[in-house]
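Retro notes, item 3 of 5
We never archived the inputs for the adenosine-5'-triphosphate complex last cycle. Fixing that now. Sequence and ligand:
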Amino acid sequence: MQISLTNSKVVNITNGIEKLSLPWQSDDSPNKPDDSSLPDDIGVGLQELASLNRRIFQPRLLPSHTVGTIGKGGMSKVFLITRDDDKVQLAQKEVTFDNARPFVNEVSALLLLKHENIIDVVEAGINRICKCSETNLAFRMEYIKDATHIKKVNLENPDEVIDLFKILIKATSALSEVHKNGIVHKDVKSKNIIFSDADNVKLIDFGLSKINRPDIGLVTTIENEGYMVGTPLYMAPEQTDDSTKCTYSSDIYSMVTTLYEALTGEHPIPEISFKETSAYYKSTLEVLSRIRHESPRDIRELNKHIVDKEFASTLLKGLAKEPKERIFKSAEDFSEFLKGVKLEKLLRFKKPLFFLNWFRRQTSNV
Ligand SMILES: Nc1ncnc2c1ncn2[C@@H]1O[C@H](COP(=O)(O)OP(=O)(O)OP(=O)(O)O)[C@@H](O)[C@H]1O
Ligand SMILES: [Mg+2]
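Structure as it came back at the time:
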């Protein structure tokens, strides 16, 4: 197995990159850029992308100015920009040419997905052309103002718990749509579910996704057999071994880990911590091995407020090592489980009953 570490992801994308020509290199496209320094080999997969949606994929993005930085990931930077012509504010995710493959993957997946809880792509193309490795690709998507991501909730605050379940139900609905479209996300985690409030939730970050749509001639994956991509802390056991074995079940496993993290701040597997950062990188292989071999803990051991035995044992069944043994067979299954959670049964509370009734009303509406 070969791995390389980026900021928060383990990724290897160096193999199997075919060279394709850009659409405007093969014809007299009116969009042909006049910049003669365009590298010859820039067209990795961009041709497929362009043929998927010529309206969204343009050689050059429309003129804009950058307002500020809104995010930084292992492979990208995300900026807030304002487009010059219509003054629309958008989030612009930029990658260097070295990351062209995840870029193409992400935009291709987003073009196939239209769902209120999946971020909407509006433009993609070359952002800046310079010396080959610095060439910068970017896509633009709707901007979620004041976006935050799922964090550990205070279980003594019913509002926070209610919001957590609402957010996860929406994120799981997004995941179901992803799966229905033949796509495995492969990087489901708390940081890839952003929201401004519990009614405005978006699943993001499809750079590692695996698209299996032979019906439209689109089958992509960024890794080859024996390689591993994803964020180790959230990976399902089969993903830690070989990412090509990743299935919809692996995504659901990662979603269960995200729920577990939000309720406890802890990782289901003992001695893996979400908090260690530098130490965690040193021990990535150990983390992967623990996920493969160690049993997850009963969630009630980690937070005294959680008292529902059935809830706790269902989570453990959602984290079974073997995909076929997992209790949630689909994202809808997991969503139904989330919708059925009763706060008064889940938690030991001293709060008035109206909170609990309110919770029932809220979760039954989503
Ligand atoms: N449309 C958006 N609106 C607002 N903020 C966004 C948007 N897209 C991304 N962000 C912010 O930028 C961060 C990084 O984005 P993203 O996860 O797509 O990048 P990445 O390089 O793949 O990240 P990582 O390697 O950490 O998973 C997000 O966690 C989020 O905080
Ligand atoms: Mg991310």
